[in-house]
Each structure stands twice: as C-alpha cells, then as structure tokens.
Request: fold
Amino acid sequence: MKIKPASLLHSIAEHFHHDASDFIDRFDILWESQTHKTGRIKTFVDLLMGCECELKAHAILSRLQDDVFKAYKEVRAAGHRIDRLAEMAQFMEDRTHYDFLKDNLLGLSVFIRYSLDAYGTFFPFDYDDAEINYSKTIGNNVWVMQVRGHLRLMIDASNDEFTGMVSNDISEIFALEDQMTSFMNKIRN
Reply:
C-alpha cells in the first residue's frame, strides 16, 4: 500500500480535495433535475465550490515545503476568488485547467446562491445591465459541462496524492491528528 506524507499541509489539501469531489458529485446528481433558473444557479454554485476547493487543494499541494500557517492563510486569503486561487495553484505544470477556470469563472461568485443576488446578477430590470450573461454561462449547458470537465480532470490529476495511508506507525498517525487539532484550534482563535 502506498504511504502518504505525514504532513499537515498534505492533510489540509486532502480535505479540500474530498470537498471538491463531494461538490462535483452533488452537481452531477442535481444538474439535470433543476429546470428553473434559480435551481440551476444554485446547482452551479456547487460546481463553483468544487472548483474553489480543488484549486485550494492544488495551491496547498504546491506549497508542501512552506510553513503550515503561512501557506494556509495565503490560500484562505484568496477567499472565493477563483482567479486568485487559479494563480496560486502550481501543482500541475500544464496550466490549461487553471487558466480555463480563471478566464471563464471571472465575476461568478458563490454569492449568487441567493435568488435575489442571482436575479440582480443575471436578470436585472433592464436586461442590458446584467453583470453576467446567463445564456452564455449557466444557461449554456455546453459551457457548464466544460467547467465541470476541467474540474473533473483536476480532481483526477490529484487523486493519487490522496490514496494510501499516512503511515504504518500508529504514533505518527496520532501525532498528525494532534497537529491537526492544534492547527484547527489556532485558526479558530
């Protein structure tokens, strides 16, 4: 069995990676069942969250030698900004997926999950004032599936990083758990 690094940053990246997988799975289940605009927008937000999580995983994987708190704070400071996270992600040499997400998701935010924000963004009273064109983005199934495809390929690219077990040494496993607990307490305070 493959042994994963006993690294706090690696463990944090793995949490983001699993979150991304959960979000894309939920998107896959709900996308075709949502036929009204706000339902589609909310389902797309799951895809956006998946992109955000996997970009965070890739950004952290590219900083495994850095200080844990510094690396985490830098990634966290990017917030929900896909463009900033895509710039930080260096795990894959080929930047095709990062650049696609950065270029195509610019201006889209998880804040559109609220129907009032979604309507203000896509369907203002004067349609010419729309911040983002719904028909060219979330209303365009080909475009949405392209976003999904890039996310899936990023998840697949990092899957091997997270298979296996951390260690055969139980004391090393407990030490990593203690580090994670201390880390979580420190970032909460």
